[in-house]
Every structure is written in structure tokens, then in C-alpha cells.
Design a protein that fits this description.
binds zinc ion, binds nicotinamide-adenine-dinucleotide, about 375 residues, 14 helices
Length: about 375
């Protein structure tokens, strides 16, 4: 079965991105891709790990035919999410003959999607591109919404552009080879999505997690569909993050600070889980969220072996400083997305630093 979702963006000219959730590899995707490409020549940029794992299976009917000369293997890692890689890929593509009649297809996790998306945004002033996310994080979050970019010495994602993919190809089969640790990291974003805007998804996650843990296609399909639908709704209202899109940052203010201060030793999903718990604690302390919702959040995080406390060694003051220098910070004010109930958030401005510091202090593991 194939599920289709449309992401309609205003602007001139209006743009529509299509999300295709290919649940069982029923063979419908190649035709969808062909009609999207409209005769363009596709150049495939694969995360090299994913390519090695999947190359033999790509002969099956659920995969489009790929011309071997149009495959580029990309050594995907955060360390390679840099401008030098974008330059190298651009040179490689031009040498292979890519021109205005071509399109790029990124197949890999969030790193590959962000790098190829950024390359597509700037190559010959804009190339059409297609995202083929292969991690849970990329399927439920990074491949949808058009944010692309690379890292700088000074921080993550500091060079970037908004560039919407024409098509997002969610092939659930890819998740079969994803290491459990990567799946766990992606679950933090799923929990975030449910908490910020989908109480039905939340209840689904609270039910015994057997099917999702076994990565049964039906369960993955439900999760991917719910997350993409919500992200598409938010992005349609505010593509360039002028306001409403900030709700997607739930859990990320504290999360990013933890990642940065740990020199990225704390992984993104883990940091987001702690950030969600911090946001919920703040909301409880401000009287905006029922204590019971916080307990449910902690239980759900623990079910997925996601941390709910700040590891020892961090100081609340240092975390606060890291938050104040975050690029998402607006004119020095602490902007916080806070849950008000499961499935609903508010944008809270003007939080006093001491309120935040007190909550962080309470979450610190001895
Ligand atoms: N653009 C956005 O809106 C957005 C949102 C969130 C995160 N991001 C970015 O996404 C990146 C993180 O993405 P990620 O967690 O997918 O990381 P990733 O792309 O590094 O993938 C994680 C690991 O899994 C491997 N892998 C990927 N798919 C696999 C598969 N199917 N089978 C086996 N192994 C597989 C990769 O080779 C890699 O080692 C970060 O750079 C982050 O900044 C972007
Ligand atoms: Zn995130």
C-alpha cells in the first residue's frame, strides 16, 4: 500500500511537495518517480553505508531502475556535513554531466538529506530534488519541511537554505537495516511530535510498544504518517519559521544546549528527550501543565530507553548560557515552547532565567 500526502506551500509560484509512504514495496513507486521527474535525468546520492546494505535488493520491482553511472556514494557522517563535501559533490555531478535537465535524489539519513538538499538549493541556483530518508529521524522529521544545510566550525546547521523537495520517498523497508540505537534516537522526535500536536499518536505510543519495537510495517506506517502529516501542517502555515513553525522546537532549546556543551557526546535524540522533560517540568512549575502529563512523558521516554535526567557534570548556569547563544534565540529573549497538555503547546516568551535554572537544577543527576 502506498500513502500519499501533499504539502502545499503558498508563494510565487505556489509549490507542492508530495510525501509518498511506501509501506510494502508494492511496486507503485517507480511510476510515481517517473512522473515527478518529467524526463529529467536523476543523479542518486546515497549514504554509502545504506548503499552497501541495499545494493543487491535494489533490483526488486519496488525500486526504480538506477543507472550505475548516476550513483554517487556519500560517506555520511556529521563530520562530513560540511561545505567542502558540497563542493566535492557538485564537482562530481558536473563532471558526470548533470545540468539543468537533471534532478538529485538523496538516499540516507538526515545528514545525507541536509547536505544534498543544500547542494540542490545552490547548484546552478537551484536544482529539483527528491528526498529518500532511510532513518527514523529522517522519515519523521528532517526530510519534510525543506530545511537544508551544513555545519560550520562554530556550530551545527549554520549555513543553510530553505529548499523544498518535490517528492519525499518514505520507503519503510529501509528501516529494516537501521541499527537499534539509531531507531531509539528517532523515537525521541516521534514522542516530541505527539506531545506537541497529536494526542492520538501519543495514545498509540502509550499502548504496549511490541509492534513498533519489532518495526512492523503497519506500526511504522502509522507513526510516519502521523508525524509527516503534522509536520506538513505546521510547515504549510509557516514555511520559513517566522512564528508558528517554532512549535517544532519543543524540547530542542535545552536539547541543543546539552548537545553543544557535551561536545556532541550526548546524541540528538537523547538530548531532545531530556529537553522535553525539562520543558514539561517548566510548564508544570508555571502551572500550565498537569503533573500527570509530565509523569506520562517520563514513562514513555523510559519505555524507549531515552534519558529523562541531565547527566552529572553539567551546571544549570552553563546550560543557560548555551541557550542564550543559540542561533534560534531572538534578540536575547528566552523563547520557550512549552506543553500545555498532551498534544498542545504554547510559545512562552519572557521566561525568567532563574525559573529555568531552578528546573534544570532539579533535573540534574547527582
Ligand atoms: N533538516 C531538518 O529539518 C533536520 C531536522 C532534524 C535533524 N536534522 C539533521 O539530521 C542529522 C541527523 O540525522 P540522522 O539521525 O538520520 O543521522 P545520519 O544521517 O548520520 O544517520 C545515522 C547513521 O545511520 C546510518 N544509516 C542511515 N540509514 C540507515 C539504514 N537504513 N540502515 C542502516 N544504517 C543506516 C548512517 O550511515 C549513519 O551512520 C543531523 O545532522 C541533524 O542536524 C535536520
Ligand atoms: Zn530534532
Amino acid at each position: 500500500m502506498t500513502m500519499k500526502l501533499a504539502l502545499d506551500l503558498p508563494g510565487t509560484p505556489p509549490f507542492s511537495s508530495q510525501v509518498v509512504i511506501d509501506r510494502d514495496g508494492d511496486g507503485a513507486f517507480p511510476a510515481t518517480l517517473e512522473s515527478c521527474l518529467q524526463g529529467r535525468i536523476a543523479y542518486w546520492i546515497w549514504d554509502e553505508t545504506v548503499f552497501s546494505l541495499w545494493r543487491e535488493r535494489l533490483e526488486g520491482p519496488s525500486f526504480p531502475t538506477i543507472t550505475p553511472a548516476h550513483i554517487i556514494r556519500f560517506p555520511a557522517s556529521e563530520a562530513n556535513k560540511r561545505l567542502t563535501m558540497v563542493e566535492r559533490l557538485a564537482g562530481d555531478l558536473l563532471e558526470r554531466g548533470a545540468d539543468r535537465g537533471s534532478a538529485l535524489i538523496a538516499v540516507g539519513g538526515g545528514v545525507t538529506g541536509d547536505v544534498v538538499g543544500f547542494l540542490a538549493a545552490i547548484l546552478l541556483r537551484g536544482f529539483p530534488h527528491i528526498q529518500g530518508p532511510t532513518t527514523l529521524l529522517a522519515q519523521v522529521d528532517s526530510s519534510v519541511g525543506g530545511k537544508t544545510g551544513v555545519d560550520l566550525e562554530q556550530g551545527k546547521n549554520l549555513l543553510g537554505a530553505f529548499h523544498q523537495p518535490q517528492l519525499i520517498w518514505m520507503n519503510l523497508q529501509f528501516l529494516e537495516t537501521l541499527p537499534p540505537e539509531e531507531f531509539r534516537q528517532g523515537m525521541a522526535e516521534v514522542i516530541k511530535t505527539a506531545m506537541l500536536g497529536d494526542a492520538t499518536l501519543w495514545r498509540y505510543l502509550e499502548a504496549p510498544p511490541g509492534e513498533l519495537r519489532c518495526r512492523e510495517r503497519e506500526a511504522l506506517c502509522q507513526v510516519d504518517t502521523a508525524c509527516c502529516r503534522l509536520k506538513a501542517e505546521v510547515v504549510q502555515l509557516d514555511e520559513k519559521e517566522a512564528g508558528h513553525r517554532r512549535v517544532l522546537n519543543l524540547g530542542h532549546t535545552v536539547g541543543h544546549a546539552l548537545e553543544r556543551l557535551s561536545n556532541y557526546q550526548i546524541r540528538h535524540g537523547d538530548a531532545v528527550a531530556i529537553g522535553l522533560v525539562a520543558a514539561a517540568n517548566l510548564a508544570v512549575s508555571l502551572g500550565n501543565l498537569a503533573e500527570e502529563s509530565l509523569t506520562r512523558l517520563e514513562t514513555l521516554c523510559r519505555t524507549w530507553e531515552l534519558p529523562v535526567r541531565i547527566p552529572p557534570g553539567f551546571s544549570p548556569a552553563a546550560l543557560l548560557r548555551a541557550m542564550q547563544t543559540d542561533k534560534k534565540h531572538i534578540r536575547g529573549r528566552l523563547h520557550f515552547i512549552l506543553p500545555v497538555q498532551i498534544g498542545r503547546v504554547m510559545d512562552y516568551e519572557g521566561l525568567r532565567p532563574e525559573q529555568l535554572e531552578a528546573v534544570l537544577g532539579r533535573l540534574l543527576e547527582p
